[in-house]
Fold these 3 entries.
Entry 1:
Amino acid sequence: MSRPSDVAAGAHRTRLRIVVLQALVLSLFATLLGRLYFLQVVSGEEYTAQAASQSVRDIVEQPQRGLIVDDMGRPLVTNRLAWVVSVDRTLLGKLPGRDRRELLSRVSTATGVGVKQLERRLVTCGDEGAVTGVCWNGSPYQPVPVASDVEREVALRILEQPEDYPGVLAEQQSVRAYPRPYGVNLAHVLGYLSPVTAEELEQAEADGEDSVNGASVVGRAGVEKQYDAWLRGLPGTQSVAVDSMGRVLGDDSAVEARPGDTLVTSIDAKVQSVVEQQLLQTIRTARQTRDTVTGRNYAADSGAVVVLEADTGRVVAMASHPTYDPEVWVGGISDDELARLYSEAAGTPLLGRATQGQFAPGSTWKPFMTAGALTHGYSTDTRLNCSSAFRVGNRDFKNYESGAYGYIGFDKALEVSCNTFFYRVGFHYWQKFGSDEADVKAFDPLVEEAKDFGFGSRTGIDLPGEAAGRIADRRWKREYYKSMKDFYCGISEKPQDSKTSDFVYKFAYEFCVEGYAYRAGDAANFAIGQGDTVVTPLQLARAYGALANGGTLYAPRVGKAIVGPDGSVIERIEPKKVGTVDLPASTIGYIDTALKGVTRQGTMAWRMGGFPLEEVQIRSKTGSAEVYGKQSTSWVASYSDDYVVVMMVSQGGTGSGTSGPAVRAIWEALYGVEGDAVRPDRAAIPGTVPPGRLPKFLADGSILPPAREKRSAAKRRASR
């Protein structure tokens, strides 16, 4: 039997345990309540935001790209709405494998895009299996575009049958359009767009550039690339609430996209149309014309025309052949189309000959050689023998068709394009300053004059990818020898085989032994624009512009102004002076008069018969550049008080013979010439000269041509 004291002690311990247990339970409740208070009150807003973010997606809204218009406000590049099919990868990933494959198969059938291509487009760039240029650079929460510019019927089928296309969207998006005023092409000037790359996106993020995102397209060539930062605008963001399956429940918030700015160019669509038509017709005609030298028709494989404002360097028109349709880039270019643009068999259409093509200038080079000679010992009274041939070493350098005119001055030599006259000038300077063939520092007035006119350097035009041309002087020849010596010595040191012609084998031997030497023949060829010296048509036009305006070299400009979406002028792109040709006014005047003679009674005269030269004075120089293994390159370089017009046709024949009619037609369009009458009201540009003012952009989106200043071309010339 238990003692009362033991019972009391047990009861006490029991009560103590209950108290401890109660305290423990109360402390647990207190902790739980404290935690709930912390979560709901102290950190409530933070967790609420996190929860909301898990059910809200940010969808990037691409801005409408800015317009590109000509000097009159005519649209050259605009935007149009196109149906785009996109796939929501979140929903796609939640489908069973079989359903996923069936869905992609349906999308492939509807859009014409292969299943494998669809799968590649749905892979995020940087992930395993990503294909550069095909993978998705955008947000992982944003539907991925898989087919662009689809037929309206396809888009409606997808929209009307959502049960067959779960997670597939069809919506209208803005893509580039080309209105082609007067049928212009202008592909090499306008350029094209393509999706931003992963590297570009990373760089943009590092630079804090918020106008580019993973779904952006950016300019790749032409003014689309040069002025991309202005044209692309700023993307917007739309936040949408979604359920657990990724279905959109409603809009949460939005930041509107800002449209890109408009680029006003100095291009005149009407002049551009004339230029393109004349270039195409000239090439077609040349290909049907027999070359008496080779006995076959001219290949006329490429050509270019450049029209500049003489006083500003602005580009009025610029055409290149072969060309391409800029529409091929809209919605993505196919592999076959891209291969054709780079194909040599197709003439490499992507290469713009006006700024990237490099050709021997032939006799169009002679006015600059005249300038160099008249400021280094020769004078306007100088008389040299224009014989049928001029011997240098053991070789006879001949005139075209071996013509001879006796002793003449520089003016007559330019009129009749006498090669032997200029051979003598080049040979004289070689004897006087540089007969030491190994002296790369020898002075050459003709080389220095060519550099002063900007040859051998890029003009600085506001188009990417411009070529620099080449002045084949002593330094260049030495560097070229170093780079090619092993190649040619390798040929000459082996026995000649059946694959190596006698010419190549002999040339390789001579080059290996003394290819570094700048010989008298090199100097003679340089003086007439032959040999290894090459220029772009734009470089030649810019140099003739300096003759026209009294000696100023401009960096040619296509852009004229940037205009905001509201029509306000953000920035005017002024002409950029980059140099001055240091020539006496009397020397420029002498050359100017001589080039008038080329048009009136010289090598261009037979193409300008009946043209009103008293009212519209045209100076010109023709050229037929010989290239080993090819037919002659046809050149005509010309200018008036207002414009410069240069035309080139590779493997096209003689200068005036091939290019002369087209150059005349361009001048007739510029001044409204009909027969022997000048009708300014018929000129391609109202008032004959380009407008000084900008087009007017109205609030309703319409564009009016610029108001004309009451200043005619005649008054403009008189004010000089």
Entry 2:
Amino acid sequence: MLIDGTDYKIASSTEEIKKAYELVYENYIEKEFCKLNIHKMRIFLFDSLSSTRTFIAKEGDNVLATVTLVFDSSIGLPAEGIFKDRLDQLRNKGENICEISKLSTQRDLGVKSLKILNILFRSCWLYAKHINPHSLFCIMVEPQNENFYLKSFFFEKNTELRIDPKANEASSILLEMPLDLKEKASLNLNNKRNLKRYRFHFEDPTINKIMEFQKMTEENILKINLSLKEPRSNATLALTGQEKKFLEFKFFIIQYNLNQISKMALSHSSKGWHREATESYENLMKTLPTWAFRKEKDEIYEKLGDMFFLLGEYKKTFEMGGKMKNSSVQRTSIIGRNLQGLAQYFLTGKKPALEILDKSEKLAHDSEDNIVLYKCLHIKAMIHNHLGEYEVALEYIKASITACEKVMPFNESTWLYTTAYGINEHLGKIKSCKEIINLFLKNISIPETDLDLKNRINFYTCMARYYSISLQHIKSLPAYETILYQLIKRDESPLNYSVHLSNYAKSLLAIGDLKKSYQVIQEALDFKDHIPLNSQISYLITKYEIALFMDYKEDEQLIQKIITEKLKGLNETTKENKQIYAGYQLSFLQIQISSLQLKGNSKESTNLLKNFVETSSITRPQLSGNMDQTTALLLLNKTAKAKKMIHKNLTSLETEIIQSDINNQPLISIYENLVKQSYDCLIENIKSIFENDIDQNQLISKVLILMNIFLILQQQNLKKEISNYTTVKEELRHLFSQLIVHKDIPAIKKFLHTIQ
């Protein structure tokens, strides 16, 4: 409607709304409230809603000013980000809220802009009171503009100033105004300003005409919205050419928001902010038409399913899988089944999960779709790996890789090889781990700097873990440092960053750099909001071991208490977590035994050793597990059982472990000497393994081996006096002294003084 040569209206054509968005963009870029984009328009998620209205003031084709009116919905309001608490208070009081947003004017309007803004605000007020009836206006304003809104309109201030991180940390105030304001506007009409405001809102002759124009425009917009809701040909045909063009632009807005929100959600996900990512996706889904963007919706359902899984919300993961399962696109349907199978495992266990995945695998085979097949097989591998069924998991991950190789190059599937590496590591298949490293080296032929970031991280992860498992911790450090300080940004991927920090700390611990190790593991624990409970326990166990060697008694006691509480919490959750609990409980028990041994508390350490022998598993084909058992039995003076254990090692242990980069034979020879109580060659074998077979800097490994050998000798001498006990003991003292002469390991120095 024309008022003094300016046309005030609800934008109802493509050109009008584009120019309004361009004006907002121009203003926001100047204030750094938004980022540059190729469209040069400021579009936000609320523009996709059918209820949102953009009001403009224009002269000819030139848009002078604009304001957007957003009505409360399932995705909230623009002010939700920093004023959610206040908005919730108003909702709880029964208020139906709408928000004035994206207010912008041309910079050269001068005082004319005040009149234009007054009329635009009144247009919004009339619409929100009569066309789409609500009860309360709100608006976020900068502090310097607060008085203008309080004096020119009927706004009130009920909240303090806050910082808006989405608007370049700008200061914002939330103002509120009831839409039923006649009673309030009638107060103190003797005041000229109050009388002017009252007449402007209730007695101006243009009000009825504005209402008529708004109703006419609303009918056209509702017709367009009907075409958005349903793909009805008759509804679409009823549109004029201009209206069809506007409908196309509405689709552009929705597509734009889909792309932008997807990027933002992906960014949140990569930072470990899965909760924020799921909220972004869920809000986006609420704005999409029910019948359109089906492919994009399926992709979002899959991403939501993955993120709900990472958040431990398995029912929602199952729900997202169900939405995909119902798709008419077979690949999408199978991926949905895969998601449901993964979720079902954590909801009800292995059997029902594998029933779903078996059907999924058959459908994938029948359709000869290797993409969904390798994903299905990978999930099966994950389930069996999680249950400790490593041999079965290995077969599935091999099959998954075989299917993947048919459709995807190595550089796009390195995460599968990283999973395979982890399973082989669990099995102690060091040779197989090295083969995976060689695959990385063989297939990564392009310069390292040109390699995809995730693939580089996967490569260095496998490399670092390989050096760690083969007791070459010095070589693992550069790989971890490359990941932490060149590839992963702590603020973009806190979950992954913390995992690598933890592994880095373990390698530092192994070489005896205790102070740095303690700092690094504490840094990893600082990310506790982003890491699951079982990972927190793993990090704490590492910190507990470092505190033990550093002789941080208070820290050691506090950490021990925290670990005990967290282990209890883990044990009280799902059946599958009990498997994880048993592993952590065993590691925790071993460190507690070492703590008591270092402090000379033989009675309590003996009790824990008995517990260790009874509870620890010796079924895994790992040399370390069997050697731990042998050590415990020798410390308990159970020589006969230790002899059987060492004999079992020599006959049933996988040959690839013996033939790997770790030459375990000298270590086995040491234990054979202890079992047979043959001490003549003992010191020579110890020197041999320290000088040649364990990396020169594997300090903690050497210290623990020496400590256990000394304690075993001590027990054997008490039972039956050893003729050359004094000589052997002095040799051990000398080796201890050589090990720690340049290292600050207080607990070991104290232990050394106890060797008499």
Entry 3:
Amino acid sequence: MDILIDSVDKYTSDGTIDIKDKFGGRFERVKIFYSSPERYTRCKYVDLISAKAHPEHESGSPDQKHNPSAWTDSVKVGDFFPYADNEHSYWAGYFSSRQSLKKMERVSSSFLHSARQIEALAKLFPSKISAKTETVSDSWSGSPLFSLDDAVGVAQHHDVATCKQHVAYDYAKSLAMGLQDASLFVSGVFRKLLLVPGLSALQNLRWCPLLNETICDVSQTASGNENQILYIVAYNALGTPRSEAIAIPIDAKDHPFTVEVLDETVTWKAVDSAILPNRNYLQNPVAAPNSIMFTATIPPVGLNIYRIRRSQSKNSLRLTPSVGRKLQQGPTSFDAQSDRVKSNREIKRGDVFSNGIMKVEFDESTGMIKRIKGENSSIEVTQEYGVYNAAAHGGDGFQNAGAYIMRPQPDDQAFHPLPVGNASVALYQSNVVTEVHATIGWVHQITRLVKGKDYIEIEYTVGPIPIEDGIGKEVVSRYTTSIQNTDGKFFTDSNGREFVPRRRNDLGVLGYESGLTLTEPVAQNYFPVNTAIFLEDEKSSFGVLVDRSQAGSSLAEGSLELLIQRRLLYDDARGVGEPLNETTDGITPDPPYGNTERLGEGVIIKGVHRLVIGGGKSGAPIVRSQMDHMFSQPLVFVGSEESAVQFSRSSLSLINHNSLPRNVMIITFNALAGDGSFLIRLGHQYGENEDNIYSNPARVDLQDLFTWSVISSVVEMNLSANQRLDEWEARRYRWSKETQPKNSLEGTVCLLQPLEIRTFVVTI
């Protein structure tokens, strides 16, 4: 783009191009300028020093690299949010609009992150990949992952949340097609890499896109056939080993199963597992009635293989005797006939449930959390679901809530908790996980304590949101804690990197203290949450991690709330042209072909929050410890066979089981066109002074990422990888002497400073 701009400037200046002649008189004074933040900075710098008439820069050359005094009065400090175009129009709604599509984009992005690594894995093992398994071609668009790459790139634009319904369907269709293409490629690579050469097996190995709805046709079909064995390939894209609970849907009833992992001796070894019921809050008629849950341990940037088969013993999925006795005395018992964990009484006051690290006490009448205790801290929690009634239909000039705008009714800015008088509670406990199910009206919650994990998982199902009263609704999950953030400060992430301090009712966010009023006390305090939001005081910290982008706030001391779903009945006049009212059966065409009528019931959405707690002033490190795990979920492929499958290896790791530092993420591991070149991005995942250990610089030897080969060259690139870093550094504008490049590459070893991302092209 810079080349195009420079060329247009040159050719218009020397008369080669006559703008007036080419495009008409009204374009005579058109000038093209600015294409990127870098070019904008350089151009503004020239304008500024020319205006100030600095004698030392009288030429105004953009090549001048250092003049900090010229910028002193132009530095922006403070927050850039909230954003509004008038006093009643705060653009906080689109942070949470179209929650289902936001989740689909996040899943697609995570899948692409893993699939690119698997594509690189295929390139590193070329002898294992037949000519029929396409890997990397000579053009970017020729990659089998191109359709997913393209769809994810488009879907990350904010208009995914603020488009018409038929456009949203098109986004979803593109993502679904990309996921289908990518999953076919990945399953082919897995079969070639893992099966004994010449063996044609697991032809139905596939990724199940509806696992979150307890739907997987392969596992449901195979589990109902006593001769079928289920095989699961679980892939971990992180640079450190991990253990995660994985749930596989099954249709079988009254049958025992055994879950086994293929160990390093290529023999099967039993792992802890449990069968849990699916209460089908999503009301999907094809959802499986049960799931088998087990803990999968997966190597860094690698995979392990598991299998599920019918067992000859009725004790296959029984709890261990010690746990079983405890359960008989406590809140649950085991059904010996069906080998299932089931609830047999209500939660009693004072019951405390533990996964070995976290201890949780629940409100016995609602099933909501009331107290959490971790290894180093304990906090009181009041958990609620509720709504803000959306502003609408106030006459000419009235600002409605809509896809962009969040606005509670002007005369009713109150949070309305859902009534809990009719709440129902159920408890399920096993040696893998404890689940507390709670239903409050049209919201269902599963609180999940996975064995050995330092977080609590909240799975919520919302909808259909009732609109019979003619009022749109903003649905909120609120956590009120004993933390005393008396200064109104809380923190949200900026695109998963820096944590930005926000302050409740802060009238100085635009850089000046006067002239602003609290015209919208709710919406004015909502901020984007891409990965996490947290509170902290001198004694405790509390954070919530999200599985998709949402709007969040702290409207009272010790409180956090997240906007988890929206259903609105009027347009906000910001260009969408229709209400944000998603329904199960879609919408009729726009005029003149239809009347854009919504069909069916309101949609039901499912989401996940992870709750973490810690000691005083530890909010950032406790959420950072889970952020990468929350984004990069294990990639799970399921296949079946009637007989035992012979595998050539028990597991596989792209980095040969070497673990990277815990504070480093492999952001990119892409195979490039041509032979033996790879694009590598490494990111330091902690900020300065956030943690005594993980905020320190991280040292990584790139050769550890290529244990199967020897690196012949490493070239460091700029972040977008379109030019060499040294060439870019030589001509970039420097804000101050402190911005001189500090890092150098010592052979294949690089040093990552806090929150730094470094990009390399590695050739083997």
